[in-house]
Amino acid sequence: MTIEVRVPQLPESVADATLVAWHKKPGDSVVRDENLVDLETDKVVLEVPAPVAGVLKEIKLNDGTTVTSGQLLAVIEEGATAAAAAGAAPAKPAAKGAVKEGARPDTIAAKLSPAAKRVAEENKVDPKAVAGSGRDGRVSKSDVVNYLQAMDAAPARAPSPAAKQPAQFVPTPSARAGRTEQHVPMTRLRARIAERMVQAQATQALLTSFNEVDLKTVNEMRARYKDQFEKQHGVKLGFMSFFAKACVEALKRFPSVNASVDGNDIVYHEYFDIGVAVSTDRGLIVPVLRDADQLSFADIEKSIANFAGRARAGTITIEELTGGTFTITNGGVFGSLLSTPIVNSPQSAILGMHKVQDRPVAIEGQVVVRPMMYIALTYDHRIIDGREAVQFLVTVKQCLEDPARMVLSI
Q1: Are residues 231 and 100 both part of a single domain?
Q2: I need a labelling partner for 55 at 20 to 30 A (CA). Which of 20, 167, 203, 345 fits?
Q3: pTM
Q4: For residue 220, is it within any domain?
């Protein structure tokens, strides 16, 4: 019996998707729920599983095709078994150490992850030359990067003896041959990020205010309770739960920071859905902590860990990336000491965390060394006054320097 494989129903906010990579080819056996192909939207990568077990009879659309909901992707012959093609020419043996023994060169391309495929295409790397470290020889992005680094580190061939140089000055040629340029189309996610960043800059009156926070008390609390917290909740006690809780307290006091603009109206959100920026190989995405004011420290840490893992694996859902009334981004994990984050439109404000750094500060007339962090609030000056922005940061600072305030709501 022939079964059709179609593009799943895309959410209302997603008009179409791009077919990134097939993981099977015609004639291959498939099992039920096995991932056949990756579809990339402007937010996430979706997997299309096999609806039945059988043999992939025909692929209707090639990689790179733009598809919409319900479009026919492939046909599966249900219950069939793959047979070896009669008279098929034997595959050429792979280079020594290039692929696992027994792997067929014509299957290597299908074993590239989407990220690995993009890096290979951008650098014109033959996937068959890269050794896959993943399951069944699957080639990851790191495998391609390691291959490129090994190629760059390889000693250059010794040049032949040069003819006697003339007396005049001759510029030294570049050590890298070719010096070519590549024009690589943006991924859908990167294009969407670019669009939203430009939109925010063009439509909002953005301004950034700064403050600094002494994290001595937070560090002491984390050190004191980290083992008990992890044992009881199964997750580490990080900084983000403290900052999320502090932001909720500040948002309650300054509702305009939690608001958004809709035409000539200001929409005051009476709930606190906080987006937490997560970096992935595909770009920055912002999963949302729904009703953050109702979550415990453990709930926040578990949610963030779950979001981060599934975002990097490409299994996070579009619904989890939709909405949000305020965003927190942490450039400090990459070493950023100070920055001006861009608002995640249509929100009106974003808090930027930065690197924790020991610095000398004056406290009660004494110079002491404390773990300090600069924090930044970029906000839409159309609806948020400077006074509110500054007091918002002061509230966040007070809650972090004296966490008991968050418990007592003072």
Answers
A1: no
A2: 20
A3: 0.64
A4: yes
What type of residue is 394?
V
- 381 catalytic? Reply is yes
**Cβ-based neighbours of 235, under 8 Å, separated by 6 or more:** 229, 298, 301, 302, 305
Q: Please, which pLDDT band fits residue 106 given cuts at 50, 70 and 90?
A: very low
- Which residues lie closer than 8 Å to 368 by C-beta, 6 or more apart? 360, 361, 362
Helix (H) or strand (E) holding 387: helix 386-401
Q: How far apart are CA 407 and CA 410, in angstroms?
A: 8
Give every CB contact of residue 312 below 8 A, 6+ residues apart in sequence.
278, 280, 281
Instruction: Pull the structure tokens for residue 223.
Output: 């050190």
60 and 102, same structural domain? no
Domain span at 26: 1-88
Choose the catalytic residue: 269, 281, 381, 402: 381
Q: How many domains does the chain contain in total?
A: 3
Numbers of helices and strands, H then E, in the chain: 9, 19
Distance CA 245, CA 251 (A): 10
Cα 260 from Cα 345, distance rounded (Å) = 9
Q: Say whether 385 is catalytic.
A: yes
47-97 confidence digits (pLDDT tens): 888 888 888 888 988 888 888 888 899 999 887 776 543 333 344 444 433
